[in-house]
């Protein structure tokens, strides 16, 4: 069933009796060509592109809970491609281009809004760094513009640009960045994959891998054994837990990241703004709530909830740059589990076990990567070779000293 | 979270800096034939369990001691706290 304006009007006039569930609820078959473990944004996108772009058949997505119940529903919905390093920027720009055509591609309203992202600058050194980053973006075909204090003032008149401690000296803008209705991304990909024959199997937890002679033959699940020629893992914060069932140790720690939404306000913030002197970023949702976040709590956690010192720290960052927001009350907050890799960059690669593939280590940048992550993982699963934009996301880069460390922090996962 | 410091008593976790898995105490032998592989695994690979986890906390805003805290990563419950010095010495380090 295709969605269209005509269909909405027709259903409105006939009592909305013609709508069907957006995806089936199939029983698992005994074997598939390809199994994707994890029904989040990345797993569903992988299944979608496998079926649509790479012509694969007999695909299943296994999800232990309900689809879209993990990090694709627990993020701050920002899309952007303002990275510096060669290993990252072409990939994230590919992702942003996919976002731009996504709603037409999968025929689903994901409320993609290219309202722009602005990184504020507070010092001369920061200006130099952001000019360098902007140039790297331009070289890779992304858009970037350095804004003067006056240009920022025109767009955000309530910002105090003359603050004594953190004066605003300018900003790096990416006008094609923006926000997305995050749940709709999972649902759109699920619907698109399902309509192309992918079995999306919910409440089906993978409890182990069947590995014989260095080859993965299938997965043990809470709904029985399922065989497959190829198995792709895309489970974000639970990566280490899942891969330990294949006796793998990953270059990752799982950390909790909190995010926050204020009560609904009248339109006050037209784009996404990041504070350059502390770690704080904010946008305003279409419902009016200020959506914001900051640093990790900083310790290993699978709890999906954080602690109060980090709440205070994030809100202090917000108050330093937007004192007016102090009048807004906090409506809700939540924690998501991030698979923080040792260099802050992801892995999309084969494992040392035949037929077992891995996609993870997205740190807290996984949402914006969703389309390209799915596309590149589908490419890898089909061709056994990396997509041209994801050649550096290898398992062995730590062993070989080929880290992609945007922040230059070294192997301290909680600092990326 | 409250960390029950062996010397100072209960302290707010915000006074501490988290420094990772307590297995980092077990530094590999640099003269071993397998040193390159051992240091790669030591530096980059982690067990990252869901459940009980021995981990290093540095009392940065306190007495600057290092602790080994046994904490549940699913519930944030802390069951045991020891001085990292004592743990390392019990393993034969820094005699």
What does this structure look like?
The complex is a heterodimer of chains A (416) and B (95). By secondary structure, chain A is an alpha/beta fold. Chain A has helices spanning 5-13, 41-52, 89-106, 124-139, 149-155, 182-195, 239-243, 308-321, 366-383, 397-400, and strands at 31-37, 59-62, 78-79, 117-121, 145-147, 170-174, 178-179, 199-201, 206-212, 215-221, 224-233, 252-264, 272-275, 280-284, 289-300, 330-341, 347-350, 356-360. Chain A is built from ten helices and 18 strands. In chain A, a hairpin with a 2-residue loop joins strand 10 and strand 11 (224-233). In chain A, helix 2 (41-52) runs parallel beside helix 6 and helix 2 crosses helix 9 (366-383). Chain B is an alpha+beta fold and 95 residues long. Chain B has one domain (2-29, 37-90): Folate-binding fold, CATH 3.30.2270. In chain B, 18% of the residues lie in helices and 35% in strands. Chain B has helices spanning 35-44, 84-90, and strands at 2-5, 9-12, 17-21, 52-58, 66-72, 78-83. In chain B, the strands form two sheets. A four-stranded antiparallel beta sheet of chain B has the order 3-4-5-6. A two-stranded antiparallel ribbon of chain B has the order 1-2. The longest helix of chain B has 10 residues, at 35-44. The A-B interface holds A 238, 240-241, 244, 249-254, 298-303, 307, 309, 342, 398-399, 411-414 and B 1, 12-14, 17-18, 20-21, 40-41, 43-50, 53, 55, 71, 73-76.
Mean pLDDT of chain A: 96
Q: Give the low-pLDDT segments of chain A.
A: none
Gyration radius of chain A, rounded: 22 Å
Number of extended strands of chain A: 18
Radius of gyration of chain B: 14 Å
Task: Report the CATH architecture of chain B.
Answer: 2-Layer Sandwich
Major protein interface: A-B, 25 and 25 residues
User: What helical percentage do the residues of chain B reach?
Assistant: 10-25%
Span of the ends, CA to CA of chain A: 43 Å
Give the CATH H-level superfamily of chain B: Folate-binding superfamily
Low-confidence stretches of chain B: none
Return the structural class of chain B.
alpha+beta
């Amino acid at each position: 069933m295709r969605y269209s304006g005509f269909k909405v009007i027709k259903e409105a006039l006939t009592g909305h009796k013609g709508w069907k569930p957006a995806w089936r609820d199939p029983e698992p078959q005994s074997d598939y060509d390809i199994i994707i473990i994890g029904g989040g944004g990345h797993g569903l996108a992988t299944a979608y592109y496998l079926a649509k772009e790479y012509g694969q058949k007999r695909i299943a997505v296994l999800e232990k809970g309900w689809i879209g119940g993990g990090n694709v529903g627990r993020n701050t919905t920002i899309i952007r491609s303002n990275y510096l390093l060669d290993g990252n920027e072409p990939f994230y720009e590919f992702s942003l281009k996919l976002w731009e055509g996504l709603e037409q591609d999968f025929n689903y309203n994901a409320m993609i809004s290219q309202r722009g992202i602005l990184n504020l600058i507070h010092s001369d050194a920061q200006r130099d760094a952001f000019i360098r980053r902007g140039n790297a973006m331009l070289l890779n075909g992304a858009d970037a513009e350095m804004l003067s204090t006056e240009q920022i003032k025109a767009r955000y008149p309530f910002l105090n640009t003359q603050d004594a401690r953190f004066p605003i000296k300018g900003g790096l803008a990416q006008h094609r960045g923006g926000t997305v209705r995050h749940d709709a991304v999972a649902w759109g990909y699920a619907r698109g994959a399902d309509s192309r024959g992918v079995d999306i199997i919910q409440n089906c937890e993978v409890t182990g891998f069947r590995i014989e002679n260095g080859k993965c033959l299938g997965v043990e699940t809470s709904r029985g054994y399922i065989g497959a020629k190829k198995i792709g893992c895309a489970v974000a914060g639970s990566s280490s837990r899942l891969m330990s069932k294949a006796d793998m140790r990953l270059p990752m720690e799982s950390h909790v990241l909190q995010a926050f939404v204020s009560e609904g306000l009248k339109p006050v913030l037209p784009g996404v703004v990041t504070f350059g002197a502390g770690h704080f970023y904010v946008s305003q949702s279409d419902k009016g709530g200020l959506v914001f976040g900051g640093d990790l709590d900083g310790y290993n956690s699978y709890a999906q909830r954080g602690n109060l010192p980090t709440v205070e720290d994030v809100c202090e960052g917000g108050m330093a740059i937007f004192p007016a927001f102090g009048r807004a009350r906090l409506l809700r907050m939540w924690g998501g589990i991030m698979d923080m890799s040792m260099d802050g960059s992801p892995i999309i690669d084969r494992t040392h076990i035949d037929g077992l593939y891995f996609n993870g280590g997205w740190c807290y940048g996984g949402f914006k990567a969703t389309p390209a992550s799915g596309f590149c993982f589908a490419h890898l699963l089909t061709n056994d070779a990396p997509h041209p934009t994801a050649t550096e996301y290898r398992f062995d880069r730590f062993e070989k000293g080929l880290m992609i460390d945007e922040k230059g922090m070294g192997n301290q996962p909680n600092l990326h | 979270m409250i960390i029950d410091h062996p010397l100072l008593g209960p302290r707010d976790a915000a006074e501490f800096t988290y420094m990772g898995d307590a297995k980092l105490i077990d530094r590999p032998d640099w003269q071993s034939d397998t040193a390159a592989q051992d240091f790669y695994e030591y530096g980059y690979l982690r067990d990252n369990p869901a459940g009980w986890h021995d981990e290093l906390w540095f009392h940065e805003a306190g007495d600057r001691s290092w602790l080994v805290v046994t904490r549940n990563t699913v519930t944030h419950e802390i069951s045991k706290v020891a001085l990292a010095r004592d743990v390392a010495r019990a393993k034969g380090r820094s005699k």
